[in-house]
Amino acid sequence: MSEFLTSLIPDPGWISFFISLVLCTLLGVFAYAKKVLDLKASVLAALLGFLVVIFADFFWFLLLLSFLVVSYSVTMWKYSLKSRNGQSEGISGERGVRNVLANGIVPLSIVVFSGPIEMISEGLAGFLFMVAIAIATSDTFASEIGVIARKPRMITDPRKIVEPGVDGGVSLLGNIAAFLGALMIGFIGFFLVTDRLTSIGPHTLEAGALLVVLTVTIGWLGCQLDSYLGATIQRKGLVSNNMVNFITITLGVAASVPVFFLLL
């Protein structure tokens, strides 16, 4: 009889699976309802979030969710002004599938292959995950806040003043915003990704001030690389803005590997 009753108790693994599925579905619905993402992008974001929970855990997912929330917040900041100037995202600020893939495919790949990555060195996957999201956030902050700067200058020629929103244009406001975006992810990741709150599961990355400094620095430098690529290969029509974002995050993550072994 006791064995029969025990069999009726759900497996904790299945409980986590079901809860994660429900929460990520609600995330997709919320993102679409609030016009954070369009319909296809909302479905894709829900799937990406679900995979992050399954391959890592809910804390790592919360860092990804933080990126989505703060990115939408800065997108909607002075949205009417940006819309009038033709510098807004989508129809009402929502982003599409290509944007989700450009910013999400690298972090997801790190999560999916976190097992083999952790075999190389404990904590490496967590660091790369934080860096990838920091770069994406830094670039989003720079783009959405820096676009209202009055006299941005071309990153390849600081003497040249360009129109706001021009690919490769940078400003003091945009760089401050980029720093704050990376800092936000570094601070949140310090608690959610590292061993600060728990050392169970994927939380093998040691929490420390240097970790935050490196995450912020690489995130900000990644934003500068994004601007440089925008001023060169994107302005020549060789790649799209989303492809520049993807290339930037990929290169930033690759460059972070030796940084991890040298400094962490």
Kindly describe this structure.
A 3-stranded antiparallel beta sheet has the order 2-1-3. It is globular and about 55 Å long. It contains 11 helices and 3 strands. Helix 4 (58-76) packs parallel to helix 8. Strand 1 and strand 2 (157-161) form a beta hairpin. Helices cover 71% and strands 3% of the residues. The chain has one domain (57-263). It starts with a helix and ends with a helix. It has helices at residues 2-8, 12-33, 39-55, 58-76, 79-84, 97-112, 114-120, 124-146, 172-192, 209-234, 241-263; strands at 153-154, 157-161, 169-170. With 264 residues, it is mainly alpha-helical.
How many strands in all?
3
| Global mean pLDDT | 88
Q: Count of helices?
A: 11
Radius of gyration, in Å, reads 20 Å
Helix percentage: over 70%
Produce a short descriptive summary.
With 264 residues, the protein is mainly alpha-helical. The chain is built from 11 helices and 3 strands. The protein has one domain.
Topology record:
Layout: H1 2-8, H2 12-33, H3 39-55, H4 58-76, H5 79-84, H6 97-112, H7 114-120, H8 124-146, E1 153-154, E2 157-161, E3 169-170, H9 172-192, H10 209-234, H11 241-263
What are the key terms here?
264 residues, 3 strands, globular
